[in-house]
Amino acid sequence: MKITDITIRHLKMTMKSPFTTSFGTFKDKEFLLLEAKNEDGTVGWGESVAFNAPWYNEETLKTNWHMLEDFLIPLILNKEIKHPDEVNQMFAPIRKNNMAKSTIEGAIWDIYAQQTNQSLAQALGGTKDKIEVGISIGIQNSIDELLRVVDGFLKEGYKRIKVKIKPGWDVDVIRSLREHFPNVPIMADANSAYRLKDIDLLKQLDEFDLMMIEQPLASDDIIDHAQLQKELKTPICLDESIHSLEDARKAIELGSTKIINIKIGRVGGLTEAKKIHDYCEEKGVPVWCGGMLESGIGRSHNIALTTLSNFILPGDTAGSNRYWEKDIIRPEVVATDGYIDVPQTPGIGYEVDRETVEAYTVAKKEYRS
Ligand code: OSB
Ligand code: MG
Asked: Chloroplast: is it a keyword of this entry (predicted)?
């Protein structure tokens, strides 16, 4: 294939309820959508998971737009691409900027799947026809409020609960949750809010039988996490620290992580995500698919990736109605009893609702060869 046309859109979607992590609160979700067209008119969609501020990592919506316009799109337009795995190599001269790279790569995977008449899941080598998902719950104003929110999601059928923690919202919160929900699989995500000096506090979490603790220490660390894991019974799962297969290999060899959260954008695309998945499978390290509060398009890519065999723990890809009054795909993503059915039609398997996309668009630019 040759990509002849690319459109970038900046979208703004209001979240149903604000989402608070240790690094900040999301009310409006602003992000880039990328639409790519090849020489025969097939259209593929990619979503940038970069936020509008560099809180989670160093990328932002604007740095992604800059990277796409000035470096990545020129490397792609009008070049012969036989398989989406090649995109990774084409981008190799550009360091990092993984979320920007992933935005185009995802659209090319979508086109490739349609051209080979496969669902994106099949194109990736996925095998499941439904995937198990959990829910990620932000920091609330009080423990009572958190218990109510958790109860609501359990009634909706979600079976695995992830809660955000930060200093001052940790041991007491997890203790209350465990008391109220003795048999529910619970995990905690710190988004890098602690340091090794907090080890005594983190060890207190060991008594609550958590599935894992996600990214307790610095976002770029794999050394202190290895030290922490030696003293913690609860498995550590790295999120922010893993950007590539090489990072995954090093973290696993050091004993810094027993589980890996794979986010397509953070690792630079589906090809790298699949490589990390395959390596972890070989090493007996379970993986699950993280979320970045995506619109339906990013969500559809997450669903496809999660069909690979070593995604054995429930991910964060909840139904569209957890985030949006109205999503930009038809049908919306629906989670029933903690499962999402994997679409079987070619490509991402959802129709992009162009009218709704336009309604949320605040800026747009087209690039042609
Ligand atoms: O660390 O997984 C994270 C949301 C924003 C930034 C980082 C993270 C998250 C989530 C939400 O946990 C996952 C989702 O529901 O998409
Ligand atoms: Mg996380």
From this structure: no
